[in-house]
Design brief:
It contains eight helices and five strands, in the order αββααβββααααα. It is mostly helical. A hairpin with a 3-residue loop joins β4 and β5. The structure holds zinc ion (ZN).
């Protein structure tokens, strides 16, 4: 009986998928949400976030972010439904958060804590290029689509197992939960990180920033981290792995870099 349920889930996960191909990714991407809806929802979330965050007015940091966005954006292929004027960023006041994020409608958020690690405009281009790449590759939409599939799978499973004993159902849901989070969602999010690193390096190189700064930048990031989450359960690649990957991506990025 388990096998038939598991078969049902695998069928759900791997065949009822409509894929669209993503430029510059060389793979099909799972996009179940129409792009307009995604943009609209992302804009709403961005507005909410702006209202509830303390926005920084640090002129130096803001000018630096603006310069990097302006230099990178001509090289960043904007997804359908958006124009290059849609790039917008905010600087959020939080010195403890060494982070940045991007939303599908070309909105970028940077936390002031990031400037503990960012020593130059090129360092900032590492982060912003990476965040812009998440937008180009439509990683947000793909992530939401994967969550939708995982949720759809659990609803089907709950119907399919109605007649089973409580213990059997619990066991099946545990297998399903582990399978969908560790088996599908986490490897995908790591794939997204690697793709964003690769494209980000290319964009920064095209804009005239030396992509090689990414390696010492991520090394500093590694030192700053006060604790480490095992990579197995973490959605971000451990920095050591990331540095190894960055080294292997560097040759491709250097093709686009003209040293002055
Ligand atoms: Zn990322």
């Amino acid at each position: 009986m388990y096998y038939s349920h598991i078969f049902l889930i695998s069928f759900m996960m791997f065949t009822v998928i409509s894929c669209t191909s993503v430029d510059s990714l060389e793979r099909n991407s799972l996009q179940l949400i129409p792009q307009e809806q995604l943009i609209e929802r992302s804009n709403q979330e961005f507005d909410k976030l702006k209202n509830k965050s303390t926005l920084s007015e640090n002129k130096k940091y803001l000018a630096q972010i603006e310069r990097v966005v302006d230099r990178l954006s001509p090289y960043v292929p904007i997804p359908d439904g958006l124009s290059s004027n849609d790039w917008e960023f905010i600087l959020i006041e939080d010195d403890d958060l060494i982070n940045a994020f991007a939303m599908p409608s070309a909105k970028i958020g940077v936390y002031t804590g990031l400037f503990k690690i960012v020593k130059s405009e090129s360092d900032l281009a590492v982060v912003i290029g990476h965040e812009m790449a998440h937008v180009v590759a439509k990683h947000g939409g793909e992530r939401m689509s994967q969550n939708m599939l995982a949720l759809g799978g659990s609803i089907i499973l709950s119907h399919a197992t109605r007649g089973d004993s409580q213990k059997d159902r619990e066991r099946l849901f545990m297998i399903y939960g582990l399978g969908s989070s560790l088996g599908v969602l986490l490897p995908y999010s790591r794939l997204h990180e690697t793709e964003a690193d690769r494209l980000g390096l290319i964009y920064m190189a095209q804009a005239g920033y030396d992509p090689r700064v990414a390696i010492p930048f991520w090394e500093r990031m590694e030192k700053e981290k006060s604790f480490k989450i095992p990579e197995f359960i973490s959605t971000h690649p451990s920095s050591e792995n990331r540095i190894m990957e960055l080294r292997s991506l560097m040759d491709e990025a250097m093709v686009y870099y003209n040293e002055e």
